[in-house]
Amino acid sequence: MSNKGKAHMGRVAQLPCCLCGTHGVQVHHIREGGAAGAGEKANDWLTLPVCPSCHTGTHGIHGNKSMLKLSGKSEHEHLGETLERLYGGLR
Ligand SMILES: [Zn+2]
Ligand SMILES: [Zn+2]
């Protein structure tokens, strides 16, 4: 696991929730290819800032995903916006 990835996750954790804008977020790892296997290592760059409610709540990403559907975007689109928010101004 690279230190750069860890530093990136620290930055993601400072952002407001990408689904509802609440501060005080958890870092969600986007899992490629569905269910996470036991030995699968999470990619620190495929992470989203989501508040506890939008993360593991009933309507959250690990719940029925209705907050994600309401946002009208996929996890990967939110990932693009998160990276843009963090690094887009550096160009
Ligand atoms: Zn939220
Ligand atoms: Zn998660």
UniProtKB/TrEMBL annotation:
Pfam family, one: DUF968
InterPro entries given in the database record: DUF968 (IPR010373)
Gene3D superfamilies per UniProt: 3.30.40.190
Superkingdom of the source species: Bacteria
Descriptive protein name: DUF968 domain-containing protein
Organism: Aromatoleum anaerobium
